[in-house]
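Ops channel
N.P.: pipeline sanity check, posting one input/output pair.
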């Protein structure tokens, strides 16, 4: 039996150089493959893969299983194109399974309004220049999340060159290194971003990133989660809010305002409109409005 685990680093380098995958994705690939080798010891025979897939289904949620199987398939494809193996073991394996459809969790606009108000009010109550500066940063982060619908990792990875204040646009590098441009036309958001950029100019230059932490370095995704939790608590909202829920709300609220789903697809950076269409199931207030105004029962008078 040939130990195929020895090609893991070659595969990771291939994904980095040829596919342009992010460091975060590469780390996830490495973890997934190392977990595979712990159970299969480098064996990728049909029997070995089937046993491992059974283990995944017992140990993880369907979405996680799908991702881990996809990584194995990508690794096998790499081995095939490099002539390391002669046949694809997945050709004789049915790895398909039904994944429960989970609707995106959104934040009601009233709660988003409350979180933003709490951040702005906190700044008014700041007792010194340092507190004021930290509140300014927090407001800029919250406004950027809601204004662009960016993933938290995308936002934290923004560089000064990605922000164009003159043309009111943000360049975002998404999954698969796909680039998209999102315009910001709200004057309040633009004003806050300009003020933040000016106040943190030296930190931004030093770190090379647009959003920075107290140590003058790149802001982490966990810090963004803590900022959101802080202001959710301040406005006394009993709901667990994540950065990704801002993205879901951005898409859903635009859809409720009759924005064409193809534009929303571009703004979110989805490669397939199928991914974006899930938001059509979430826009409940628009659905209620349509039924209230357009239902044919309204034309029946008894």
């Amino acid at each position: 039996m040939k130990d195929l685990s020895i090609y893991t680093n070659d595969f990771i380098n291939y994904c980095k150089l040829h596919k342009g995958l992010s460091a975060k994705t590469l780390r996830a690939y490495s973890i997934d493959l190392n977990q595979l080798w712990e159970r299969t010891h480098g064996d990728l025979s049909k029997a070995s893969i089937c046993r491992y897939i059974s283990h995944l289904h017992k140990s993880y949620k369907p979405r996680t299983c799908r991702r881990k199987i996809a990584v194995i398939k990508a690794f096998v494809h790499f081995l095939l194109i490099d002539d390391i193996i002669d046949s694809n073991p997945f050709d004789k394996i049915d790895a398909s399974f039904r994944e429960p459809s989970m609707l995106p969790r959104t934040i009601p606009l009233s709660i988003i309004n409350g979180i933003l108000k709490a951040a702005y009010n906190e700044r008014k109550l700041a007792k010194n220049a340092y507190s004021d500066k930290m509140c300014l940063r927090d407001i800029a982060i919250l406004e950027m999340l809601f204004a662009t619908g960016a993933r938290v990792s995308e936002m934290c990875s923004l560089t000064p060159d990605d922000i164009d204040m003159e043309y009111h646009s943000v360049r975002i590098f998404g999954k698969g290194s796909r680039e998209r441009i999102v315009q910001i036309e709200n004057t309040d958001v633009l004003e806050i971003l300009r003020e933040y950029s000016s106040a943190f100019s030296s930190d931004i230059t030093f770190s090379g990133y647009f959003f920075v932490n107290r140590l003058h370095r790149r802001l982490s995704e966990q810090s963004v989660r803590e900022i959101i939790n802080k202001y959710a608590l301040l406005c006394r909202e009993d709901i667990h809010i994540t950065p990704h829920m801002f993205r879901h709300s951005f898409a859903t609220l635009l859809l409720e305002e009759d924005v064409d789903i193809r534009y929303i697809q571009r703004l979110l950076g989805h490669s397939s409109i199928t991914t974006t269409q899930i938001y059509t199931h979430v826009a409940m207030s628009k659905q209620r409005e349509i039924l209230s105004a357009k239902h044919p029962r309204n034309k029946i008078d008894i």
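N.P.: looks fine end to end. The first strand starts at residue 163 and ends at 164.
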